[in-house]
Amino acid sequence: MKVTLDYVAGIIDGEGTITMSYVHKTNKWRTPVVSVSSTTIEILNALVAFCGGHICKHKVYKSHHLPSFSWRVHGRKAVELCSHLKTRLMVPEKRRRAALLATKYVACTPRNGKYTQTQTHKKQQLEHAFFHPSKP
């Protein structure tokens, strides 16, 4: 099976999430995360081979449930993926979030983690716009 950016966009549109979350408990700021949950491990393995990231296996709570897995990529790799997918996604909210991360995240996120007042303000605006699209 040949994986393309259009295929990845379709999987994320159908089964995926583009969000920002606290990757570590001590983080002050949320980190971009692109993830897909599925019971079909082959799809997730293809995503790892094409996009990087990692797969987690979830606990099966009931005997009649299939094993389920989640693939995720976070940080700058998620931003890079969003920059490739922003025009290919069909779901408007996912397309909006991908475009926002692709165009705004790197500019307000210093690699050393030391924020100026301006960067702090821009980061707060980005998070607000990301989670509250209709509110100024």
Overview of this protein structure:
The protein has 5 helices and 4 strands. The chain has 136 residues and is α+β, with helices and mostly antiparallel strands. Strands 1-2-4-3 form a 4-stranded antiparallel sheet. The termini are far apart. The relative contact order is 0.15.
Beta-strand fraction estimate: 15-25%
User: Using only CA atoms, what is the Rg?
Assistant: 16 Å
What would you call the quaternary organization? single chain
What's the shape? globular
Task: Report helical residue fraction.
Answer: 40-55%
Low-confidence stretches: none
Please identify the structural class as seen in this structure. Answer: alpha+beta
Quote the average pLDDT.
93
N-to-C order of helices and strands: HEEHEEHHH
Distance between the termini: 44 Å
Largest sheet: 4 strands, antiparallel
Number of helices: 5
Number of E-state strands: 4
Q: Going across the major beta sheet, what is the strand order?
A: 1-2-4-3
Main features:
136 residues, alpha+beta, 4-stranded antiparallel sheet, 4 strands, globular
Helix and strand arrangement:
Layout: H1 5-15, E1 16-21, E2 31-38, H2 41-51, E3 54-57, E4 69-74, H3 76-85, H4 92-105, H5 117-131
Antiparallel strand pairs: 1-2, 2-4, 3-4
Helix pairs in contact: 3-4, 4-5
Summary of the model, kept short:
This protein is an alpha+beta fold and 136 residues long. Helix content is 45%, strand content 18%.
